[in-house]
């Protein structure tokens, strides 16, 4: 249909047909980045889950590959990971050979257990281990294993969700086949209904050192509704994860980034993630017919101390510069209070907007009637039909909002539209990087400390960009607007 084409992203991965949710098995094999994903090839709804597969050499241009792991009589192929068993610790490869192994959940209505499969052709196809499951605790809510090699203790460590118990279980193995229980973490942070898709990684802290970060996806029960990914910063000693404090972070201030996974086997331990750009609250009702499901852009992740000294996750899109076409001329420099500047947008192309803005100081001697006045800087993507997508900054509280309510392509009770976050409460300056691609919006503010990911469904093309200063003037310290070259051939 027309909406299948109109809403199809041009630089984000989406399946040709069928339904896609979580990214799975993210791994770099030395040449290719693999993206496996939860996939129903038969219908644009969740069900009959297989592992779909695509490969890339830059995390942006993706090549579709055959289904890697099918649904079987043992159940659907739920989320999981891949590892490189380079030294044949499993003993499942031919003598002197290693290869890729997948550890994932098989789910049937009454049982969820962890399965192992190996690939002798570099991740193209997988053969199930003959004595599956490798880990079964007689539960129907035990899923989404992530496995990594923990060098200090020289063993594989698995994190896996005991979903309804709101716990993340830790197991260890030397052969990927036999697993010993180490510890449990949680309930902690958000309660919600199910804990899903845990990820544990050691990440660089900007300025020096590292921390272990445990990501836990929760659904439903996110503060913005439905699916959300929370994270804990702490230490992992090979047995137990201990958070530094009782504070939790959220990977997103909006509601369409879920089940985030981090790439394994990256050079220099670079932390790169991809999440599902969706939410269980409405993913099966989105206004496309033949396909549903989108992945976020790949994101580089680091840890950084915020204005108050807390260690927080910073995420920024990775490698987008390579897709930039010639800059769209837009010479806005200074906006007086109440004024705006506008530019026409090229049709059908993804856009990359970076802005750095300082809003004028609030006058100290405002007359009584103006005491409540604040200064806002507003970024509007709109059209002549009166639709608008708005991202705004309130300078006197340091908060940012995102408003997708004034778009008319989709309505559903849970498809709420307004989200906000605080950047820095004492700062009239903000920087923002916005990527708009068909029905997706990703916002990276404050150097990536505040990230908002949102599905957006305008009824017609958003064909202008307008910048508005309201209540106070603003100086645009830097502005760059680029079209992004289409990379997904769909
Ligand atoms: C998360 C999730 C996982 C499960 C998969 C099923 O979105 O519910 O817990 O493995 O999706 O597709």
Outline the structure in words.
- This protein has one helix at residues 2-6; strands spanning 18-28, 33-40, 50-56, 63-69, 76-85, 99-108, 111-119, 127-128, 142-150, 155-162, 167-173, 180-185, 194-204, 210-219, 228-236, 241-243, 249-250, 258-262, 271-276, 291-292, 299-305, 311-317, 334-335, 340-344, 350-359, 376-382, 388-394, 399-403, 418-422, 429-437, 440-445, 450-455, 464-470, 474-484.
- With 490 residues, it is an all-beta fold.
- The longest helix is centred in the first third of the chain and has 5 residues, at 2-6.
- The protein is globular and about 75 Å long.
- It binds beta-D-fructofuranose.
- Beta-D-fructofuranose binds at residues 21-22, 38, 49, 78-79, 105, 143-144, 196-197, 259.
In brief:
Pfam families: Glyco_hydro_32C, Glyco_hydro_32N. With 490 residues, this protein is an all-beta fold.
Itemize the secondary structure elements and their pairings:
Blueprint: H1 2-6, E1 18-28, E2 33-40, E3 50-56, E4 63-69, E5 76-85, E6 99-108, E7 111-119, E8 127-128, E9 142-150, E10 155-162, E11 167-173, E12 180-185, E13 194-204, E14 210-219, E15 228-236, E16 241-243, E17 249-250, E18 258-262, E19 271-276, E20 291-292, E21 299-305, E22 311-317, E23 334-335, E24 340-344, E25 350-359, E26 376-382, E27 388-394, E28 399-403, E29 418-422, E30 429-437, E31 440-445, E32 450-455, E33 464-470, E34 474-484
Parallel strand pairs: 1-20
Antiparallel strand pairs: 1-2, 2-3, 3-4, 5-6, 6-7, 7-8, 9-10, 10-11, 11-12, 13-14, 14-15, 15-16, 15-17, 18-19, 19-21, 21-22, 23-34, 24-33, 25-30, 25-34, 26-27, 26-33, 27-28, 28-29, 30-31, 31-32
Bound molecules: beta-D-fructofuranose (FRU).
